[in-house]
Amino acid sequence: MSVGRPMVVVSLPARSLEATRRQIDEAGIAGADMAEVRLDRWSPAERPRVGQLFPASLPLIATLRSRAEGGEGPDAAEDRAATLLTAAREPFAFVDLESGRDRRLEDPVRELGPRVVRSAHLVPETPPMELRARVVEGGPPNGLLKIVLPASLSRAVHELLPLFEGTPAPHPVFLTTGPSGPLWRAWTGRLGIPWVFAALAEEGGAGSVEPSQIPADRLETFLSAPDAPIFAVVGHPVAHSRSPAIHHGWMRRGGHAGLYVPLDLDSPGEFRVAIEALPSRGLLGFNVTHPYKRLAYECAGERSADALATGVANCLTFLEGRVVADNTDLGAVQRRLEELRDQGLWSGSSLTILGGGGAARATLVAAQRLGATATVYARRASEVEALATEYGAEAGDPHSPSPAGLVVHATDVGRAGRGPLELPLRPLLAPGSYLLDWVYDPEVPVLSQIARDQGASYEDGRRLLVYQAAASFRTWWGAAPDDASIAEALQRAGCAA
Predict the structure, then answer these.
(1) pTM value?
(2) What CATH fold (topology level) applies to the domain 7-225?
(3) In whole angstroms, what is the distance from residue 391 CA to residue 77 CA?
């Protein structure tokens, strides 16, 4: 791949003139080269005030994205013309015109001064031949062609990368959305794509216009450092993940130039494509979450002692053609159990575990290492018996559960879209019990409510997340984050000291 530094364009999520002014300055501070003003997000009454954005601290692009192409603006060409021509009379650097709706406006806009971005948001079913023709057709005079395509990781790897690597520059502004979107943005510099659209810095809390967009400060640092490594959290779903923010915070403090992105893969086949294709495309490591921890273990050629002990992997490292598996969940939960014991919140003698997946296995091994007796409950009796036999635990009887001093919840209940907890929890908790939940930031707070009802203490999985992330960071960068960096990450996650 060729190496270059594309222009970083921040799409502003603002819905008013005043908010847009503020966000333009925020984009510049984050390292953006330009800002895209999304006029489709402004109310029709607000749009005539667009000239009051000037003078601006960054060059601006005026965009009126139609509903048909994923925005909130009008679809009919005649309804769009008034707003777009009004914008063209102001000192915008570019006006974005949709290929299928605004083509007749290209000459009038150029005559008024701004350059034209001819954009096309394609459907996922766009045939390869049509896509290739669009990529090589060239843009408008003195302007740019922009193409956006929803694409799986498989399509990005097997079709899109060969297309761009086999087509001489100049290339259009080409971006993908969907599972491949964040990773494609990381590749834009290596592919010679001239622009990449980004979000405001995460610190601002304003959010992004498109889920695939990466915060501009992260992207600018990465794109300015040739051959900087890429990392990813891989699972389904992963949109909720805090891992990118945690790792970027530590990279910033440690002076490391890298990029950490979410990679949502909806099938084992897509996961295998990631393992096979991405190490040669700048990827150095994966954190693996549900439902691929067992598959990650199976795909690895080398396994750490902690991965072997649990039979699952949540951390993969790619080293010169080798795939090395580790289980940093194990060290994280062992550390937290030791802390709870030392703080007098757990006796250290016994605990109860709900679940049969990777987090449950890590907790069972941690209990073994700490000399604690574990009782395990899972949905299937065969699973309970297998885990009890493998890890020397006791098989819990769901028909006669008894209260425990420490209960560790290791299922995905609490995530949006997950069903109810099909295991006994309420009878396991009593006043003074402690419930440690592997799920962090649960969208459905059913477990914390049960704990309160029973007079028990509750802790979600944010601290466990930070602890396992620190172990992964050490593996990839050669040194763990220092104590101050870990404390900062815990504070940002909302964990009490």
Answers:
(1) 0.93
(2) TIM Barrel (3.20.20)
(3) 67
239, pLDDT greater than 90: no
DSSP state of 160: I
Task: For 330-460, give the CATH class.
Answer: alpha beta
1 pLDDT tier (thresholds 50, 70, 90): very low
Q: For strand 457-459 and strand 373-377, is the pairing parallel, antiparallel, or unpaired?
A: unpaired
Radius of gyration of the chain (CA): 25
Each residue's pLDDT tens digit, 369-389: 999 999 999 989 999 999 999
**Residue 146 bears catalytic tag:** no
pLDDT mean across residues, the chain: 94
Residues across the chain: 497
Structure tokens, 226: 């040739």
Identify whether the C-beta of residue 464 lies closer than 8 Å to the C-beta of residue 443. Answer: no
For domain 259-326, give the fold.
Rossmann fold (3.40.50)
User: What is the three-class DSSP state of 337?
Assistant: helix
Considering the candidates 118, 171, 293, 409, report the single residue annotated as catalytic: 293
Most confident of 111-115, 133-137, 437-441: 111-115
Burial class (CB in 10 A: 0-12, 13-18, 19+), 133: exposed
